[in-house]
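hey m, so remember when u said the tokens were messed up on ur end? i reran from scratch. heres the input so u can diff it against urs
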Amino acid sequence: MDISTYATPIPSRQSAITRRLAFAVGLLFIAGVIAAGGALFTIAKHLDSEDVHETKFYAARALDNRITASKNYITSYAYWTTAFEHLSGDVDVGWAYTDQNMGKTLFTSDGYDGVFVLDRERTKYALVRGQLLQSDLSAYLQLPATALIDQVQSQADLTKPISTYSLFEGWPALVTASAILPNDERPMGDSRKTSVLVFVDKLTPTKLRQLGSAYSLTNLTLALDETLAGSVQKVPLDSTGYSMVADLER
């Protein structure tokens, strides 16, 4: 008898099982790749979201710290009896500019593009990029002088400076202003008669690069709001039409 006639075709059956097993393993592999890809995409989106938040946070902090530094610095000039004596009424230009008590080093060393002394009638003293000029504040700053003086003089505590944003020569700037007061506790009378000191910090590309570097921000710059539609990491500079932005690390 030929026993091969009754033998079960084992190799063929094993081949079918192997194919089914391979197919199942393939499906599992594909499912694993899809799951891993989905997880990586979710992680990437999360990291991007974190980067947007951190970029905006540190850009805002950089500006806040610059505002605080400017307020502290202007106070050292404005809340000073000697300055009050030389800048109230007619400005003593010799003391302020020639003797360098409030002269060109405010630009060359401290980076203030504009320094002004105002009262409600006129601009009494003007430095632009360290140069003494016979000019009115309105020739350079978009913000009206009366609005700036009102902000300063309407405060309950005149020793506290104010900060705002405005265009200076058509470019965004941080504007810090303070009433010029003696620090000898003499009675001041009508707050509307105080002179006001103004420091203008134009936010130039060079300054922004330096500011960004201090906070590990890449390509910190300014852009028109109309070009930043939908941007979530921008930090607006109120009333200027510009916002500060930095590159994201994707």
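this time it looks ok to me. The longest strand covers residues 171-179. if urs says something different then somethings off w ur setup not the seq
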